[in-house]
Write a structure and sequence with these properties.
alpha+beta; two-stranded antiparallel sheet; 12 strands
Length: about 450
C-alpha cells in the first residue's frame, strides 16, 4: 500500500477524533513499496512481475517431470524427480526471501533543513550546490581512503557509505546493488545474500534440466538404434526444454559469474558500473576469502524500519503567514518542490518572488528592484523592531538542536566505522552560517 496523502487523512469521516488516532507505519509510508499481511511483507512497486518469474521456473520443471524425468525412473529411479523438485523448491524459497524482505531501507528524516539557515556566501563547487545553497557532499575516511557521501533531497539525510537512492522504490538503500524487476525488489544489504543464492540455484536447475534431457535423448537413440536427430524428433518436449534451459542459462549463469566476481572484490553492481573508469582503490576490499565471508557468514542486520508500528497520523502542515494577507511565495515554492520530490532550489523560488515585484517584466537594477519590493511589501512585512525581537530567539528544530546544523549524524559515522576507520574530514563549508540579511549588511 502506498502512503495516503495528508488531505485524504484530513477528509476522513471520523473528523478530528480520527486525525488524533494512530495508524500503522506502512499506511503512511512515503516510498513506492507495496505491503501485504498488514505490513509484514514488503515488495517493490513492480511486484506484479514476481508471478511471471515463478511461472518461468515452475512450468518448465513440470514439463520436465511429466514428459522426461518420468520416463527415466526405470533406469535412474525416483531420485531424478526428487532432485529437480528440491532444486525448484530451493529456488522459489530464495526468490521469496529476496522479494518480501526489507532490502536495507534507511528511514527518511521528517523535517528538511530550513532555507533561512543556509549559507548564502557559498562560492565554488557545482552549479547545483550554488543553487541549493546546501552542502551536497561530506567526506569520511574508510581504510585510509576518502569516501564522499551525498545528501539525499528526497529522504532529507546524508546517505551512509555505499548507500544510494533507488528511483523506482523511492528509498535510500544500504549497500545498494541494483533494482531487480524479476524479483520486484531492490537488492541491498539485507537481501543480497539470498539474491545470489537464488541466481545460483536457478543456474543449477538449468544445468540439471539440460543434462537429463540429453540423457533421455541418448537413451532413445541407443534403444531404437537411430541417429541423434531422429531421436530429438521423437521427443519434442526435450527439444523445447533444451532450448529454453540453454537460453535461461546464459542469463542466470552470467549473473552468477558476474556477482561472484563482485563478491570477490567486494563491489556492488552500482559501484562497478559507476567507478570502473576512475582507477581508484576500493576501500571495502578485504581480500577474496574475507569478502565471501562478509556476504555469506555474517549476521544480517535487523531492519531499521518497523512497518507495523503504530504512529500518530501526520498533522496537516499549515503555512504560517506573516500577515493574514501575505503568504511567502519563496517558502510556498520550496515546500511544493519538497513534496514533489524535487530538489529545493531556493534561488529559483526567489526568482519567482522577483516576478511578483516586477509586473512589467523588464530587467531592472538589483538595488532598485529591492527598493521596489520593499515599497510594495512595506505594509505587510513586520517592522524592524519586530525583526530584532524575532532574531533574538534562535529557531530550533523538532529534534532539539539548532536548525542550521548540517553535521553528519552519528548513525552515518557509525555505519562508516563498521567498514573501516572512519572520521570526519571536511563538510565542504566549514565556518559559521549567516542569514541573507547579515550577508547583505556585510556586502553593503
Amino acid at each position: 500500500m502506498n502512503a495516503e496523502p495528508h488531505h485524504r487523512l484530513r477528509a476522513s469521516p471520523a473528523g478530528a477524533a480520527d486525525a488524533a488516532g494512530l495508524v500503522r507505519t506502512y499506511k503512511t509510508w512515503k516510498g513506492s513499496n507495496r505491503f501485504l499481511l498488514g505490513g509484514r511483507l514488503i515488495f517493490g512497486p513492480d511486484v506484479r512481475s514476481l508471478p511471471l518469474t515463478v511461472f518461468l521456473i515452475v512450468v518448465p520443471v513440470a514439463v520436465f517431470c511429466g514428459l522426461v524425468a518420468r520416463k527415466l525412473i526405470d533406469h535412474l529411479g525416483i531420485s531424478v524427480i526428487v532432485a529437480v523438485c528440491v532444486l525448484t523448491l530451493l529456488a522459489l524459497v530464495l526468490l521469496l526471501l529476496t522479494s518480501v524482505r526489507d532490502p536495507g531501507i534507511v528511514p527518511r528524516n521528517v523535517h528538511p533543513p530550513e532555507p533561512e539557515d543556509y549559507d548564502a556566501s557559498i562560492e565554488g563547487g557545482s552549479n547545483e550546490t550554488q543553487q541549493s545553497r546546501f552542502p551536497r557532499m561530506k567526506e569520511v575516511v574508510i581504510n585510509g581512503i576518502i569516501v564522499k557521501i551525498k545528501y539525499c533531497d528526497t529522504c532529507m539525510l546524508y546517505r551512509p557509505p555505499r548507500c544510494s537512492h533507488c528511483s523506482i522504490c523511492n528509498n535510500c538503500v544500504q549497500r545498494f546493488d541494483h533494482h531487480c524487476p524479476w524479483v520486484g525488489q531492490c537488492i541491498g544489504l539485507r537481501n543480497y545474500r539470498f539474491f545470489f543464492m537464488f541466481v545460483f540455484s536457478a543456474t543449477l536447475l538449468c544445468v540439471y534440466v539440460q543434462g537429463f534431457c540429453w540423457v533421455y535423448v541418448v537413451r532413445i537413440m541407443h534403444s531404437e538404434d537411430i541417429s541423434i536427430w531422429k531421436a530429438l524428433i521423437k521427443t519434442p518436449a526435450s527439444i523445447a526444454l533444451i532450448i529454453y534451459s540453454f537460453i535461461a542459462f546464459w542469463f542466470v549463469g552470467g549473473l552468477t559469474m558476474f556477482h561472484s566476481y563482485l563478491i570477490s572484490t567486494n563491489q556492488s553492481t552500482y559501484e562497478n558500473f559507476r567507478y570502473r573508469y576512475d582507477g581508484r582503490d576500493n576501500p571495502f576490499n578485504r581480500g577474496t576469502i574475507e569478502n565471501f565471508m562478509e556476504i555469506f557468514c555474517t549476521k544480517i542486520p535487523p531492519s531499521r524500519n518497523n512497518f507495523r508500528e503504530k504512529i500518530p497520523k501526520d498533522p496537516p502542515v499549515l503555512p504560517t503567514p506573516i500577515d493574514a494577507n501575505f503568504v511567502n511565495p519563496v517558502m510556498g515554492k520550496a515546500m511544493s518542490d519538497i513534496e514533489m520530490g524535487r530538489k529545493p532550489l531556493w534561488n529559483e523560488a526567489s526568482a519567482e518572488l522577483g516576478d511578483y515585484s516586477n509586473d512589467d517584466g523588464v530587467n531592472k537594477d538589483p538595488r532598485s528592484s529591492e527598493a521596489d519590493a520593499s515599497q510594495d511589501l512595506s505594509g505587510t512585512l513586520p517592522t524592524e523592531s519586530t525583526e530584532r525581537h524575532v532574531a533574538s530567539h534562535p529557531r530550533r528544530s523538532s529534534w532539539g538542536r539548532r536548525s542550521g546544523s548540517l553535521d553528519i549524524s552519528p548513525e552515518v559515522l557509525a555505519m562508516a566505522a563498521g567498514v573501516g576507520d572512519s572520521r570526519r574530514v571536511t563538510d565542504g563549508i566549514n565556518g559559521n552560517f549567516r542569514t541573507q540579511t547579515e550577508q547583505s549588511q556585510i556586502s553593503s
